[in-house]
Amino acid sequence: MSTRSPWTCILWDVDGTIIDASVGILRRLTVTLEHFGKPAPTRDELAHWIGPPMYESFQVNVGMTPAESTEAVAFYRALGKQEGYTTDARLFPGIAEIIQDAHAAGIPQATASSKPEVQVVALMDHFDLSPLFTAIAGATPDEKTLSAKSDIVAEALRRLEAAGVDTDRPVLIGDRHHDIEGGAEHEVPVIFVTWGFSWPHEAEGAQAVVSDAAQLRRLLLVSDDSSDGSSDGDG
């Protein structure tokens, strides 16, 4: 029995899709915002923070100026580097297995994350997923030069194409409206996962919405169960 996919390549958001890094994010946000005299978010308010670039979130969520936001991002990222980018991070159930099976089936994959690329690489290395990706794309360290989801999707597709991958039928797996909007700019359909940090309305415009790994698997991987005991060849 072989496995194929209706897609020629798969792009993955990271935070809220593959990885739950919420414990560390909340802790670092609390320290950072208190340092700058701003109110810290509750866990329920993490949906305002996880997904968009931090440079943008500090301005939108607590009213920082661009200059203040740049300083806050640097402070926040320094905390992350000090703690270790993988501290308290965990995989969402069943997702690593899908990535592994897609790789085994020969389906090229890439990350397309607004998280700084150095952190994405560290996380993928930590969970032994790096060898399964043809490309690992994330934001630039300043989170300004390359951070918009549409730009990161474009960069992920560019790297896949440079590796000789057929990008005619890509799909993006994500958990925020930024994923849907970023994919739409490049005509990349999005499968929206509900186990991340999002509001219900954010799924609008998605190709499909899934609530667990089993549902996602059925949309990404199809088993050719043609070996049912008959000897009619490929039929």
Number of strand segments? 10
> What is the 3D shape?
globular
User: Spans with pLDDT under 50 lasting ≥5 residues?
Assistant: 226-235
Portion of residues within helices: 25-40%
Strand content: 15-25%
Category by helix and strand content: alpha/beta
**Rg over alpha carbons:** 19 Å
Secondary structure: elements and pairs:
Blueprint: E1 2-4, E2 9-12, E3 19-20, H1 22-35, H2 54-62, H3 66-83, E4 90-91, H4 95-104, E5 109-116, H5 117-126, E6 135-139, H6 149-162, E7 170-174, H7 177-184, E8 190-193, E9 208-210, H8 213-220, E10 222-224
Parallel strand pairs: 2-5, 2-7, 5-6, 7-8, 8-9
Antiparallel strand pairs: 1-10, 3-4
Task: Give an overview in words.
It is a single chain. By secondary structure, this protein is α/β, with parallel strands linked by helices. 39% of the residues lie in helices and 17% in strands. It has helices at residues 22-35, 54-62, 66-83, 95-104, 117-126, 149-162, 177-184, 213-220, and strands at 2-4, 9-12, 19-20, 90-91, 109-116, 135-139, 170-174, 190-193, 208-210, 222-224. The strands form 3 sheets. Strands 6-5-2-7-8-9 form a 6-stranded parallel β-sheet, with helices on both faces. Strands 1-10 form a two-stranded antiparallel ribbon. Helix 5 links the parallel strand 5 and strand 6 (135-139). The chain is globular and about 60 Å long. The chain starts with a strand and ends in an 11-residue tail after the last strand.
